[in-house]
Design goal:
- The protein has 23 helices and 21 strands.
- It is of the alpha/beta class and about 575 residues long.
- Helices cover about 45% and strands about 20% of the residues.
- The chain has an eight-stranded mixed barrel, surrounded by four helices. A five-stranded parallel beta sheet has the order 2-1-3-4-5, sandwiched between helices. A five-stranded mixed beta sheet has the order 7-8-6-11-12, sandwiched between helices.
- The longest helix has 26 residues.
- Bound molecules: ligand C2E and magnesium ion (MG) (2 copies).
Length: about 575
């Protein structure tokens, strides 16, 4: 993305404008009044008083329900409402109206009443309280004007109390308010809420060397990048000097939280221009989610903060998401122990999914996919245990086993078919961090005497983006061995075609979510053309229907993978075939 063009225009991120106070009504234009009154005589008198009160336009409705509808339709400067309506009486009227009217002032009226009722109405959201008998025009004009101005300054104060003055984002208080709201909404509906903490690495150094104005500018740029990276209903806040926090009110899984965390980090890949100087910033991200990591604002915040420190201490520019309490509780004793023994006990298995030439339908290779044959749970899918392998560091030994087993299978298939096909093996980010990957690959190629170009290592975008310079180095060394590199799930990370230039890759695997969504056709077509133009092999994943296959082949996608062409299957299926 051409950040610098956008950044010159930064003001307050657009999606936060919704809570800004309404501008004062133009004095030249009539005040638009919504009158909520069911008694026709009272309504008539009130309309007359309002008309006499000055330049007003009055719309009359007779019930609370109609009033709520009118407020939703919009276009009013002030609401004047009778306390007692056919569908609402007492303080419920003012409370319900106040919630719906948001930034529009409310004037309550009643046929009778005392000071206490008046005060209570004001406490519950009204700007003023009038008796019907008091509605003479002079008093009414003042009451309307004052109510509008009072509400405006009240809204402005509320707005400022929730905002950070430098970036225009929510401040710590606003963040906590938004998080509390998201938790409450989730308590009534199913689903998770995510919290991400982001701390800029080395912000202080920039602030000290370039000055505070440049520091503020940097914070505004960061605020903007974060705001455009998250989805519309996610809330970005600045909660401290160089600390940002994001509330994700609708989250489907921890995997999604990790993905969003990674996207936030990717927002820093492009350097930032600060008064002519190019600076590079990175951040550390920690995540937690409701209800698994906690059910209150404090618990979630503490878990996210700890996770962020953990990310920082393991080398910065990373994202770490806290495990749920249930996982934490069972991880040390049971599941992690079980996983520990799973390798020795031979409980892991690989299944192989064919990759097929789109034009001829011939099998050109396989992707190895791990399964855990748990003694009581049965066959467990990788998404349910690979994160735990990564978490515990076991992924290194399991990853080495996957590589060797998959390449052994390739040798067996060569013996059966007489030709070398290709074997794609998934590699985790933590295997990239570990120096031994290159040695392992070298050893397997040597011992099993396999042409290196038949082995393709798949990395997800998120994995390669964790530490760009280091990854680029490891990938280069792997390619020097002659093995192929694939970018997996392409399009789901912060996909950045510019990364294709940074990393030397051979294959792009278009994620199944794109292949399967017909709305993304233009995008898929674009990715294929671009991949081909860069001389890459493009693999379409998750092909389930002939229409998806035909579309991909039509656009020049050479290799297809998906249930239509073959499900992941045990090695015996191929060997006995
Ligand atoms: P992936 O590398 O993107 O693998 C493709 C996933 O899509 C596989 O899920 C496969 O079964 C599924 N798939 C293939 N064709 C279709 C289709 O037509 N429709 C649908 N709906 N799904 C299809 P699986 O086996 O559950 O693996 C999930 C992920 O787990 C993999 O995604 C990969 O990221 C990870 N994984 C699998 N094996 C390993 C491993 O040995 N090491 C590591 N680090 N990760 C692994
Ligand atoms: Mg894969
Ligand atoms: Mg994939």
């Amino acid at each position: 993305m051409a950040w610098d063009r956008v950044e010159r225009r930064i003001r307050v991120p657009a999606h936060l404008d919704a809570l800004e106070p309404e501008p004062s009504p133009d004095p030249a234009r009539p005040i638009r009044v919504l009158l909520v009154e069911d008694d026709s005589i009272d309504a008539h008198l009130a309309v007359r008083a309002l008309r006499r009160a000055g330049d007003t336009e009055v719309a009359v409705v007779g019930t609370l329900r109609e009033a709520l509808q009118a407020l939703e339709d919009g276009g009013y400067d002030v609401v004047v409402a009778d306390m007692h309506l056919p569908d609402s009486t007492g303080f419920n009227t003012v409370e319900t109206l106040d919630r719906a009217a948001r930034t529009i002032p409310i004037l309550m009226v009643s046929g009778g009443g005392d000071e206490n009722a008046a005060l209570e109405n004001v406490r519950r959201g009204a700007q003023d309280f009038l008796l019907k008998g008091e509605m003479d025009s002079g008093l009414l004009t003042r009451a309307l004007r004052y109510a509008i101005e009072r509400k405006r300054s009240q809204t402005k104060l509320q707005y400022m109390a929730l905002r950070d003055g430098v970036t225009g984002l929510f401040n710590r208080f606003g963040f906590r308010t938004a998080l509390a709201g998201a938790i409450e909404a989730r308590e009534h509906a199913q689903g998770c809420v995510g919290v991400l903490y982001l701390d800029l690495d080395r912000f202080k150094a920039i602030n000290d060397s370039l000055g505070h104005d440049a520091g503020d500018e940097l914070l505004r740029i960061v605020a903007h990048r974060l705001s455009v990276t998250v989805r519309d209903n996610d809330v970005v806040a600045r909660i401290g000097g160089d600390e940002f926090a994001i509330v994700v009110p609708e989250l489907s899984s921890t995997a999604e939280l990790r993905l969003i965390g990674q996207r936030l980090l990717n927002a820093f890949v492009e350097p930032i221009q600060l008064s002519g100087v190019e600076v590079r910033v990175t951040g550390s991200v920690g995540g937690s989610h409701f209800p698994a990591c906690g059910t209150t604002v404090d618990e979630l915040v503490t878990a996210a903060d700890r996770a962020m420190y953990r990310a920082k201490s393991t080398g910065r520019n990373r994202c770490y998401c806290a495990l749920g309490r249930a996982a934490m509780a069972s991880l040390p004793q049971s599941r992690a122990r079980e996983l520990h023994f799973a390798l020795q006990e031979d409980q892991f298995a690989l299944v192989y999914q064919p990759q097929v030439d789109g034009k001829t339908g011939r099998i050109v290779g396989y992707e190895a996919l791990i399964r855990w044959d748990h003694p009581t749970l049965g066959r467990v899918a990788p998404n349910d245990f690979v994160p735990m392998l990564e978490e515990t560091g076991l992924i290194r030994s399991v990853g080495a086993w996957v590589l060797r087993t998959a390449v052994e299978f390739l040798v067996q298939m060569r013996e059966r078919t007489g030709e070398w096909r290709r074997m794609a093996v998934n590699v985790s980010a933590s295997q990239l961090d570990d120096g031994t990957l290159i040695e392992e690959v070298t050893a397997v190629l040597d011992e099993l005497q396999v042409p290196p170009s038949c082995v393709e290592l798949e990395f997800t975008e998120a994995a390669v983006m964790r530490d760009v310079p280091r990854t680029a180095q490891v990938l280069d060394r792997l390619r020097n061995l002659g093995v192929r590199i694939a970018l997996d799930d392409f399009g789901t990370g912060y996909s950045s075609l510019s990364h294709l230039r940074r990393f030397q890759v051979d294959t792009l695997k278009i994620d199944k979510s794109f292949v399967q969504d017909t709305k993304d056709h233009a995008l898929v077509g674009g990715i294929i053309s671009l991949g081909l133009a860069l001389g890459l092999t493009v693999v379409g994943e998750g092909v389930e229907t002939p229409a998806q296959r035909d579309f991909l082949v039509d656009r020049g996608c050479e290799v297809l993978q998906g249930f239509l062409l073959g499900r992941p299957a045990d090695p015996e299926t191929y060997l006995l075939d």
